[in-house]
Amino acid sequence: MKPSRSRMMFGEILRMALSSVGANKLRSGLTMMGITIGVFSVISVMTAVGALQNSIETGLTLFGSNIFQFAKFPPNMNAAGDTRKKYQDRRNITYKQALRYVELMDGYAREICLKSFDFNGQAVYNGLKTTPSLTVVGTNKSFLTANAYTLEYGRNISDEDVEFSRTVLVVGKQIEKTLFPHESPLGKQIRLNGHMLTIIGVMEEKGTSFGQSQDDICLMPITRFFENFGEAKRTINIATQSFTQQNYEATLDRGIGAMRTARGLKANQENDFELYSNDSLKSAFISVAGVVRIGAFVISLIALVAAGIGIMNIMLVSVTERTKEIGVRKSIGARSRDILQQFLTEAVFISEAGGILGIVLGVIGGDLLAYWLKVDLIFPYGWAIVGLVVCSAIGIGFGFYPAYRAAALDPIDALRYE
Question: Quick one: which of 132, 151, 172, 325 could link to 215 by a disulfide (CB 3.0–4.6 Å)?
């Protein structure tokens, strides 16, 4: 069976279009780069954001299950101006208020974790030193449950340790690896920011979250923390775990009331503390991710439009340079439709080639970021398809006018062109 004339004609048009693009490699390549940059920017952002969102939605959690937390600051302190000042001017959540909250929640919650942080700790043992940016936490026995840590061996902080302000420490896995590569740390005394403490337990390795190690951490009784690091300018976070998922909302309502009472708020005063949980953190991330996606898409669309104008400009130049060729083709029987198809094919090919290169580089760039953040790698099929469709639209939309001009040339005038 012989191929149809239309298929043969299209094949010939395609070969001629590719031959023309290949004859001007530098010019075609530079035109492609505009499309590549636009597609790369959107695909790389979508790949990285998609990988992060998948990781969060499949179990990356800050807290344990059925837990909500009160704090002075929101989880993401990127606010500026008056909004940032509003949080900074809030009263700290004091230890006295936290103890009052615990008293009011007695019998209504399974676990209540009190915690205050310092992010400039450095531990020293026998001449070995940790990084000078350890996370030091003053807390109680509920920290492991509230923050999804597991004790590997030794013992946890006890109520008696807090009551008597004992100089004991539970350390993360990275601290054990750094200071005790060939021996057990249990019972050993280390110097932490100038204070001697005895290690009583080691937590299991938790890995990294968003590129940050979760194992450069050490826990001490909150009372000892305040004695060593001071209490006056510190605020406390309070994490509360309900008995079951079924009574989570009731526990949350009770907790908000208890927190308002502990803070001394009147009925007509708004909350002067933040409330968040795993679900709220996920929602906040998804909301931010949505804004990032829209921003990336708008910026990339601008870049693609600019690239499309470049394609139109190059194709107009090509039409002018090839006026005599067009005249010859028309004089030997080429139809205006054939000329139109040839020039449109060139424009679409340049646009699609740039788009495919942008998709490949974008996926590589986005997944490299995801790999650095230790989350699962993905391929954004949906956005890749959208990218190819947009590139086709750019090629057709910005290539149509030059193609139409080429198709509309009078063959006699074209043959006279010098």
Answer: 172
User: Per-residue pLDDT tens for 338-351?
Assistant: 788 888 888 888 88
Are residues 133 and 218 in contact, defined by beta-carbon separation less than 8 angstroms? Answer: no
Q: Token digits for 117? A: 């942080």
- Determine the 3-state secondary structure of 312 from DSSP: helix
The predicted model gives 264-283 an average pLDDT of 81
Q: Which amino acid is at 35?
A: I
The string over 109-147, giving b where at least 16 C-beta atoms fall within 10 Å of a residue's C-beta and e elsewhere, is bebbbbbbbbeebebebeeeebeeebbbbbbbbbbbbbb
Contact partners, residue 239, CB within 8 Å, separation at least 6: 63, 67, 68, 69, 111, 112, 113, 115, 142, 146, 147
Query: What is this structure's pTM?
Result: 0.61
Q: Are 69 and 275 in contact (CB under 8 A)?
A: yes
Which pair of structure tokens corresponds to residue 183?
């021996």
DSSP tag of 76: -
CA–CA separation, 129 vs 181, rounded Å? 12
The DSSP symbol for 190 reads: E
- Per-residue pLDDT tens for 22-36? 666 777 777 778 788
| H helix runs in 58-106, sequence order | 81-88, 95-104
**In the chain, what are the domain boundaries?**
7-58+284-416, 67-276
CA distance 52 to 42: 15
Q: Which residue has the tokens 């992010």?
A: 119
pLDDT per residue over 325-375, tens digit each?
778 877 877 778 878 888 888 888 888 888 888 888 888 887 787 777 666
What's the one-letter identity of residue 390? V
Q: What angle do CA 301, 306, 309 make, to 5 degrees?
A: 125
Q: How confident is the prediction for the chain on average, in pLDDT?
A: 82
Long-range contacts of 406-411, Cβ-Cβ distance < 8 Å, separation of 24 or more: 406/319, 406/322, 406/326, 406/339, 406/340, 406/342, 406/343, 407/336, 407/337, 407/339, 407/340, 407/343, 408/336, 409/319, 409/323, 409/326, 409/327, 409/330, 409/339, 411/326, 411/327, 411/330, 411/331
Q: Which two tokens stand for residue 286?
A: 């998804």
Give dist(CA 277, CA 80) in Å, integer: 23
Closest CA to 255 of 77, 123, 66: 66
Highest mean pLDDT among 15-19, 48-52, 329-333, 385-389: 385-389
